[in-house]
Amino acid sequence: MGNDAPSRKVALARNAAPSRSIAPSRSTAPSRRAALAALLSAALVTGCSGGARSVASGGTATLRYFFWGEISRAELINQCIDVFERGHPKIRIKASFVGFDPYLQKVTTALAGGNPPDVLHVDYAWLRTFAHHDLLADLGEVSGPGKEIDVGTVVPALRTAGLIEDRRVGLPLSRNSIGLMYDAGLYAKAGAAPPDLNTSWDAFVEETAKIRKFTKGAQAGVDNPGQNYMGVEMWMMQHGRTAWTESGQLGYTPDDLREYLTFIERWRETGGIASAREILESKPNGPVTLRRAAAVFEWDNQIGSRSEVRGTPLKLTTPPTDTGRSGLYAKPGMLISAAAATPYLSEAAQFINFMINDRRVAQILGTNIGMAPTTSQQGVASMDDPFVRLTSGYEKRIEDVAAPTPPAPGIGGNTLNVRLERIAEKVGYGALSVDEAVEQYFDQVKFAAS
């Protein structure tokens, strides 16, 4: 921070190398757990007071800006920064990025170590943890009529995203929804029907088994939705639960999880879902991209990258349901926040407002980080890309059946997601029974909350 000479371009060659790997939202990298552990201890003893809240008269504020992604995203964000700086000559942006997996360690070290960025991207799974330790500024101070950030444009389904205990600690920078990405050609050849909201889960189980039979065991009908938090969350929402409550506690019981994992085990016996070994051998991109499965429940904005790696254009449809509820909701694909320690809250807020509301940002980014989060930016992304059209069309189809953003994960929620994946993996290998898995997971929940 401070009035250093501007260095606004992200140093692409120094920070990352091109890669076709997809940065999945459900990484099991051990560094992420270590980073959170360091945060929980260090942040409690690290001062986060900020000092002066605005740049001195006639001076130039340089904002440090952290985000995750690959070179293609960094190049687009560089273009956004150029536009912003032309309109704000007294604010310079010094941006830095890394891939998703190392990002959490980088940003928690900076936040808890006394050298935070002024503006940063935050995943929804980390938001409550950061807020609990007062590492993020309350943007409510700079939001509203006549203030730096116009929050009235945020689409209704995302209005609560970024609120923790009535504090506005982040704003959605994009929105996504879960969809079933599937190889329509393979499903048709196998005589298997993709699901919709009129399809029961048992009926979908039968259809996925047809894929395994048609491919002579080479591909499952779908990646395993029991081995990642998205599948659990979607199931719980279909059954009237939420993954997390407003107070940051788990929103479902051991019996709820036992019912779901028991269903997954019955599904596994049919061969319709990917095995634990197929998932392990397909990392980091996943079975659907390496043609070990014909479908996957995933955030809809990833359909282009998944299709590219698979080599076959995928389609989008809704999950099946037994309850009439879709289990879908508007998720902030990522949030943008200001550090509590920034001495430039007003300037950081101006940049945040630009990123969520300026139509030129939507033109530049397209759907690289997801669909537009505000009415200001809706409908701006070019429809030339067929996957943009596909994602946009899917979002419109589910508008009436998707729920608003549910409460943010509890403190340590990200590590619990990783723990759930690993426990489910052991069930898949036969190393744990469903009952043992449920007991271990809820023991871990108690430990994380203590």
UniProtKB/TrEMBL annotation:
Q: Which Gene3D superfamilies match?
A: Periplasmic binding protein-like II (3.40.190.10)
| PANTHER family, sorted | ABC TRANSPORTER SUBSTRATE-BINDING PROTEIN, ARABINOSE-BINDING PROTEIN-RELATED
Q: What does the organism's lineage look like at the top? A: Bacteria, Bacillati, Actinomycetota, Actinomycetes, Kitasatosporales
Question: A Pfam family for this UniProt protein?
Answer: SBP_bac_1
Q: Which domain of life is it from?
A: Bacteria
Protein name stated in the entry: ABC transporter substrate-binding protein
